[in-house]
Structures are given as C-alpha cells and as structure tokens.
Design a protein that fits this description.
Organism: Nonomuraea gerenzanensis
CATH topology of one domain: Rossmann fold
Distance between the termini: 45 Å
Oligomer: single chain
Mean pLDDT: 96
Helix content: 40-55%
Radius of gyration: 20 Å
CATH superfamily of one domain: NAD(P)-binding Rossmann-like Domain
Keywords: NAD, Nucleotide-binding, Oxidoreductase
Strand content: 15-25%
Structural class: alpha/beta
CATH class of one domain: Alpha Beta
CATH architecture of one domain: 3-Layer(aba) Sandwich
GO biological process, one term: L-glutamate catabolic process
Bound molecules: glutamic acid
Largest sheet: 7 strands, mixed
GO molecular function, one term: nucleotide binding
Strand order of the largest sheet: 10-9-8-7-11-12-13
Number of helices: 14
Protein name: Glutamate dehydrogenase
Order of helices and strands: HHEEEEHEHEHHEHEEHEHEEHEHHHH
Amino acid sequence: MSIMVPSTTPALITPGRQALDSALHQLDQAAAHLGLDDGLRTMLATPRRSLTVSVPVRREDGRLDVVQGYRVQHNVSRGPAKGGLRFHPGTDIHEVTALAMWMTWKCALVGIPYGGAKGGVAVDPAGLTTRELERLTRRYVSEIMPLIGPEKDIPAPDVGTDEQTMAWVMDTYSVSAGYSVPGVVTGKPMTLGGSLGRTGATSRGVQIAALAALGRSPEGVTVAVQGFGKVGALAAQYLSDAGCKVVAVSDVTGAVYRAAGLDVARLRAYAAETGGVRGFHQADALSHEDLFELDVDVLVPAALEGVITEANAPRIRARLVVEGANGPTTPGADEILAANGTLVVPDILANAGGVIVSYLEWVQNMQAYAWSSGEIELKLRDLMLNAFTEVKSLAAERGLTMRQAAHVIGVGRVAEAHQMRGLYP
Ligand code: GLU
C-alpha cells in the first residue's frame, strides 16, 4: 500500500478514465435521442457530490499507510443515492464517477426510487489481514459519514467487499448515531437485517435476463463466464441449473474449459478451497483471451470494466452477451458487436438484480419487517422482466441497440424528474 495523491490532471488515461468516457458517450447518445438541452445534459454528466478522502490505516506491524477513498453521488433527484462500495487497487475518482452514473440509470430503468452513487477505496483487500480490513472500512466510513444515511445514500457490496464489510459499515454508522440503523447499508448478513436472496441476487438477475434474451429453451445452450467471483460463479451455477452447458469460466488465476460442460458446483467448491479455478482437474486450461473468442451461445462478462474492446470484439463469436459486470464493453466494441449481429443485454439491465434486492432489503429495514424468499424472488423476477420487456420493445420500435434503449429509458426518467422538480432557487 502506498500514498496515492490523485491529480486533477492525470497524465495517464487510466482504466477509470476510460470507463467514465464510455459512460459519458452513452449519456450523450441518449441525451441526443431524447433531445435534452445542453444545460440538462451537463447536469446529468456531472456528479452532484463527489468526495475524496485519505484513509489512514494502522498495519499489523505498527506502520501507518494512507489510501485514497471516494464516494460519489451522481444523482439524487429520484430518491436517495444508492450504490456499492468497491475495494480494488485500480479504482480512482473517474471509475467511481462512471459507476455512480451507471447506478443512476440502472435504478431509474428498473423503476426503483433511488439516485445513483458508488464508493471506492484504492486498495487490494487480499493484501490486508481481516483486522486491517476492518480498521480500513471503519475509518473510510467515518470519513464519508456526512454523506451516507438511510435517507441520503445507501452503500452495498461491489468488487472486493462482502457482507462482512457491510456489517462493519452498519456498525460504524450505528455507533455514531447511538442506535442500530440497518437501513444505512444493504447486502448485510441476515442477522443484522439482511434480505433473503440478496447474496445471489445479481447472478439471479443475470440468469433471468439471459433466459429472457435467449427466447428459447436453455437446454444445451453453451455459456462462457468471464469472472468467477460473487456474480460470475453464481450466474454460472444458475444458468447451469436452468439447463445451459457452462463450457468455460475464468478468474484472476486462469481459465478452464470443458466441451461437455463444467460441473459448476464442483468448480465452485474447488475455487473456494484453492483460491481460484486454475488447475481444476475435470477441465482443460485456457487463456484469458481465448475465453472471449469461444464459439458459444452466451458470453457473460462478470468482472471489471473495459474487457470487450475494439481489439477482441471482432473475434467474439457468442450470439448473446449478458453483462454481469458494470461497463465491460467499450463503445467501440459495442458498434462492432452490433454490426456482427451480437445481441448485448447491457449492464444496467442485466446486473440490476443486485440493486433490486438491495431496494427490497432497504424497504424491509425501513418497515422493520421481513419477506419470505418466495416473495423476494417474485418481486425480483417481476422488476427484471418488466424492465427487459420495456428495453426490448423500445429497441425494436426505434431501431436502437438494447444498451441505447436502456439508456434512453433510464436517462429519460431522470431528466423527467429534474424537469418536474424544477431548479432551486
Ligand atoms: N454493486 C452493485 C451494482 O453495481 C449493487 C449496488 C447496490 O445494491 O446498491 O449494481
């Protein structure tokens, strides 16, 4: 860990800056389609609040390290800001801003009453002990405390964070408030007011979106999943449970392939035990790049941004791409995929299952009431399929890609909220 002082004029085009450029490009297209005026477009292109904090962390050996943390509230016009908290060494203010913007459109698209936010800490959680991670999380929360709250901004898990992290967020906030505030964060453990179905919610949403986009029986449909973490591993499991043949998956340790279909449950157990999919005995090794180029029906990118680019898009043979990750496809790649007839179910639709069940968790917290897993599953399916149908029909009606249609709906709803509220003062 080292001190990283963010510059307002970064010398390098970071992956985060590329993600923000992609998000701004998508917004521009939607704003042009909707005929939004320049002032409103600029409002939507800039976050309402953006906080950078330096987080001091006491290491086990007594040293003091300082890492950069961020919380960006992109928009709050439809309700409290909502979005995950990411711990990743590559995160920066640009990436967090892009991710916050995507949260805004995602919440509007699926019709839940939230704005969009994201948090990030530029740190590799695997390089910290549990106690260091706890101290880091608590100090980061105390630094961003003025921004968050159940009616203001509600964090949730994202890359590198989990329900334990959310428990620390909830506790730090509650200790400062003087009473338990479960609604300040979602993706909590069940015992602290978490919701049934939240752990697998993003993956369940990916499965629902993929099956809806397939429009035929999933029996024997071949799938490759890039990223075998919280989202990818369970998406692979649920698609396999539905009858698909998951032939390849990858994670940071490597990629594995089996033409006859992987035993996903065994692979998950293997990865949990060994720390990754590499070396799984019932499969062949594959390179990370080759996974993208497999002749499969469905490709699910479920890791980080910017992995489908102009460089590899021409070689993608999947008929359908379902984005479990946020921002995995660059605008240049989008054009190539569209020209090749590949259907892309965009991130703000395909991975909305997570924030949908986060919303259900928050509603339960605010009412001090709990729903059954059946009720959660039904509501999740309903919201996902409604949004899917709206996007599909708008795309067909206006000759747009599903990403363009999803953005036109999401951006349009936020723009409408702004116009109805008017400008203060
Ligand atoms: N981090 C997830 C996402 O990108 C979930 C956010 C949430 O539940 O608030 O959608």
